[in-house]
Amino acid sequence: MAGACARAALALALWCALAAAAAGQTGQWLRAHATFYGGADASGTMGGACGYGNLYAQGYGTRTAALSTALFAGGAACGQCYKLVCDRKTDPTWCKPGVSVTVTATNFCPPNWSIPSDRGGWCNPPRPHFDMAQPAWEKIGVYRGGIIPVIYRRVSCVKKGGVRFAINGHDYFNLVLVTNVAGPGSIRAMDVRGSRTPDWMSMARNWGANWHSLTYLNGQGLSFRVTVTDGQTIVFANVVPPSWRFGQSFASNLQFSL
Ligand SMILES: *[C@@H]1O[C@H](CO)[C@@H](O)[C@H](O)[C@H]1NC(C)=O
């Protein structure tokens, strides 16, 4: 059954969702709804609560989504990838047949308690909801529909090149943005070590995909030890040279497995 679902045609997806839910698998198909934002060119999706900044420049493009509170998990979901299909059985009018789209979580869709959850407050807890970049949404939904029922599952993130690190902040406050993370996409823990520092020091999630250290690291080469949410750990030894300045970004040539 698991093998059949891994290769499932879209028509089978809903059956697999129910079967997988019964089996308690991770990455199972689940139900949610999806709307869109940010305009036809997705320009309004730049920035966002994960802190990725310019999504075109960072390689996320227009296949992105803002997640409701229930899915965003305080930023822990930043970078995760989801495959979505429109639930055509529930909504034959606004669902496009036979297509799917995969998006990366780059933003938070906040609740609005002044609107009822079933009449516009789509992102209110406990609803699972994807507010997708419009070009991604239009892959599976018809524009006039505005909102569609979807079934979705977590999938591995496929990335080109290695994990990247951007150093922001100021003295005694290194704010490190981690981007282009393949595999699970999301980070569980992160440590930093300076070239003149004997030990690894743990970093804390500051916001979105930004992790901070309160140590004075100016003038030292930096190594990072990153553990992603499926447990894989990579040491990015001296990925940042001692000449680094705040505001600079550095690409590694290491990447997590799918
Ligand atoms: C919540 O919804 C109301 C009604 O549509 C709107 O006027 C208000 O601006 C919204 N609040 C936020 C924070 O978006």
Give an overview of the whole structure:
This protein is mainly beta. It folds into 2 domains: 2-155, Barwin-like endoglucanases (Beta Barrel), CATH 2.40.40.10; 164-251, Expansin, cellulose-binding-like domain (Immunoglobulin-like), CATH 2.60.40.760. The chain has helices at 2-6, 13-23, 69-72, 134-140, and strands spanning 30-37, 64-68, 81-86, 101-109, 129-133, 148-155, 164-170, 173-179, 187-194, 201-202, 204-207, 210-213, 222-228, 233-240, 249-251. The chain has a 6-stranded mixed β-barrel. A 5-stranded antiparallel β-sheet has the order 11-12-8-7-15, with no helix packed on it. Strand 11 (204-207) and strand 12 (210-213) form a beta hairpin. It is elongated. The protein starts with a helix and ends in a 7-residue tail after the last strand. Residues 112, 114-115 line the site of 2-acetamido-2-deoxy-beta-D-glucopyranose.
Main features:
elongated, 10% helix, 4 helices, mainly beta, binds 2-acetamido-2-deoxy-beta-D-glucopyranose, 258 residues, 2 domains, Immunoglobulin-like
